[in-house]
Design a protein that fits this description.
By secondary structure, the chain is an alpha+beta fold. The protein has helices at 18-21, 41-61, 101-106, 116-119, 160-177, 188-193, 201-204, 245-256, 288-306, 348-352, 362-379, 382-395, 471-474, 481-486, and strands at 3-8, 12-15, 27-35, 68-71, 80-83, 87-94, 133-134, 136-143, 146-154, 197-200, 220-221, 236-243, 267-269, 276-278, 315-323, 339-347, 402-403, 413-418, 439-441, 453-454, 463-470, 488-489. The protein is globular.
């Protein structure tokens, strides 16, 4: 029953922001796992009709999902534009002979069982050359006893929160489609009278006239990406880990406990207002998310050290994308890129917390990392974000501004991604799909080394995250007693 459906692009007028335009045209892929006990051909055809109706209605509301991303110009290959031509696609495949849902469930939907080429083939190239590239593709993979729905939306048009906003609308349309009322979704008559979708992201996500200076933003750089020969040959393993709700509470408690160590206070200057934030003042505000990030940062760097990739005195770097919607008071829902990359650095001995220099246990390393992260997240103020936007607007026709750790993520840096606060497990997709997802996963291939991702918080309060590292690095996680104290591999 392999099929492909194209939903042609309605007219729209969307002006991308500078953040949108400079985002690498890569697909963000999400695997939504549903249990479907009914394996009949008729039921699969019914689900297909529902998915198509929901996607069509979603495109009517958000027509840019059926647009195409194209090069902005030959002179600025790092910039991209969105044009109101193209289509959104629903691809349907029957993999019921190859994949069993109950087997996936027993393996806790392990990443190694989710073959990217089978579930959602990667495009031939991530970077646009001649274009155009479709914005949105859904691939419905029917397996024995379930559905693996892969949502692929290009990062140039939507960031992580933006895609979650799209899925919220899609889930609503899917529920409406199940009512059986043909008038419940948009009709052709209503479509002709509906005003053309129009939105100017550039006017609300801007520097507001600020000149901006790259020196104010350690998480960003205009330097070209370094080239590491032979990186394409590097073999990596993509593994999903789990932290129970009890372990998560303990982790936060450990990371946020007061410390009297010599390294407890780190003064981090903020160049825009001249103030300094003492990380010891951040102890009480350290979040569960900060604690998770600190554990992952520490664990990856120690594993790389044991694998011989970094030295025992290496300076390690942590970078994270901070959602700016609330800080900039953007209208909700805002679908575009609204992220600001922070960066903080620690020497490996401080991160490990087990050196001769300080009489400390591993706890101090975790606390120091969490405080450093919290200080930078808190320092990402609206003024600082506007300053970066001003710099990008002033220079983007001549140079590319990019996250500064890119190019070093397989060595001394990590670029931390997170869906932790995305309410994916709360979305109701309707009775036909069993209501809510059973698991949220990323495909096994497509993530770069050094780009760990925290998945949406589980209904029971626990957490899952994905680490993709070189094979010789991954084996050291099993030997890390601190890491194993909190996290277990999904298998």
């Amino acid at each position: 029953m392999d099929k492909s459906f194209a939903i042609q692009c309605p007219p729209f007028n969307l002006q991308l922001s500078r953040l949108d335009m400079r985002m690498t045209p890569m697909y963000s892929k999400r695997v939504l796992c549903f249990h479907l006990p009914n394996n009949s051909i008729e039921h699969k055809e019914y689900i297909t009709r529902l998915l198509l109706a929901a996607l069509r209605s979603t495109v009517e509301e958000l027509p840019f999902l059926a647009g195409s991303v194209v090069p902005f110009s030959k002179d600025q290959p790092w910039l991209h534009d969105l044009v109101p031509h193209g289509a959104a696609y629903l691809v349907v495949k029957d993999l019921s002979r190859e994949i069993n849902f109950l087997d996936l469930r027993k393996a806790r939907f392990s990443s190694v069982l989710l073959d990217t080429e089978q579930l959602c083939p990667l495009p031939e190239a991530f970077y646009l050359r001649d274009g155009p590239i479709d914005v949105c593709r859904l691939q419905a993979n029917f397996v024995d006893g379930g559905l693996l729905l892969v949502v692929s939306i290009i990062h140039t048009v939507c960031d992580g929160r933006g895609i979650s906003n799209v899925l919220r609308i899609f889930a609503e349309k899917l529920r409406i489609a199940q009512t059986g009322d043909p008038m419940s979704l948009s009709t052709a008559c209503e479509e002709t009278s509906k005003p053309t979708y129009s939105f100017d992201r550039a006017s609300i996500l801007s520097g507001n006239g600020l000149c901006g200076a790259i020196e104010n933003h350690p998480g960003w750089t205009t330097l070209p990406l370094p080239f590491h020969g032979g990186s394409a040959e590097t073999k990596t393993l993509c593994t999903t880990f789990h932290i129970s709700s009890d372990s998560l509470r303990t982790l936060k408690q450990v990371a946020s406990s007061p410390s009297s160590s010599a390294s407890a206070t780190i003064n981090i200057p903020h160049p825009l207002d001249g103030t300094q934030t003492s990380s010891s003042d951040q102890t009480s505000s350290i979040s569960t998310h900060d604690a998770i990030a600190a554990l992952i940062w520490r664990s990856i760097m120690l594993a790389r050290h044991r694998a011989g990739i970094i030295s025992d005195r290496a300076i390690t770097h942590f970078s994270q994308a901070v959602d700016c919607r609330t800080r900039l008071q953007l209208p909700e829902p805002y679908f575009g890129n609204a992220i600001y990359a922070i960066k903080t650095s620690l020497a490996l001995p401080l991160l490990a917390g087990t050196t001769d220099s300080f009489d400390e246990s591993w706890i101090s390393g975790l606390q120091t990392a969490a405080r450093a992260i919290r200080a930078e997240v808190s320092g990402a103020t609206a003024g600082k974000i506007r300053d970066l936007l001003g710099f990008i607007e002033r220079t983007d026709m001549e140079i590319l501004t990019r996250p500064s750790v890119l190019g070093d993520t397989s060595i001394g840096s990590i670029l931390f991604g997170s869906y932790f606060r995305f309410e994916m497990h709360e979305l109701d997709f309707g009775e036909a799909l069993g209501g809510k997802i059973e698991a949220f996963r990323l495909p096994s291939r497509g993530l770069l080394p050094g780009m760990p991702v925290v998945l949406p918080r589980l209904p029971d309060g626990g957490c899952e995250f994905v680490i993709n590292e070189q094979e010789e690095v991954m084996r050291f996680f099993a030997e890390d007693e601190v890491f194993r104290r909190f996290a277990s591999e999904q298998s």
